[in-house]
């Protein structure tokens, strides 16, 4: 496993600093119990009014190869190119309606929080997990008969860590490149919105 801690300006918890989105996957099964633990972590995410609008459709290569392949087929070609060894695909959905049938404007935000909990649990278990927006949501909806009230937000692929050198050269380079984020003063504003922003 490549160790790539975030070069933070202030110390943060190692679970957060060390989580990243690898593409080099090993071709060996992920235990079903580990998948359940990731989903359990997601289940305990916070949500407005405790609405819990997240939903997950889970595809395990060893449990149902045909369903896995159908889900895999909804990824854009670039994501298919590096996910050949993915063992689990988890579609992240958001229920856009409340229990009363009214619009839930925070559904995607809350589903994102649950997805992050899932990603952190994967990392805590020593697994590689990568969230992708690059999928054909319409095709996924049609293939798996997803009702209209659910937005298809993303797909998370999960596997054991693999060798970066097994990737195409450009991706192998990205796999080992320094991690970077916008500086804090560009994303956080104290007391007011700056005129320059």
From TrEMBL:
Q: What is this protein called?
A: Nitroreductase
UniProt record similarity statement: Belongs to the nitroreductase family.
In terms of Pfam families, this protein maps to: Nitroreductase
Q: Listed GO molecular functions?
A: oxidoreductase activity
PANTHER family the UniProt entry points to: NAD(P)H NITROREDUCTASE YDGI-RELATED, NADH DEHYDROGENASE_NAD(P)H NITROREDUCTASE XCC3605-RELATED
User: What's the superkingdom here?
Assistant: Bacteria
Boundaries of every Nitroreductase domain copy: 16-159
Keywords annotated in UniProt: Oxidoreductase
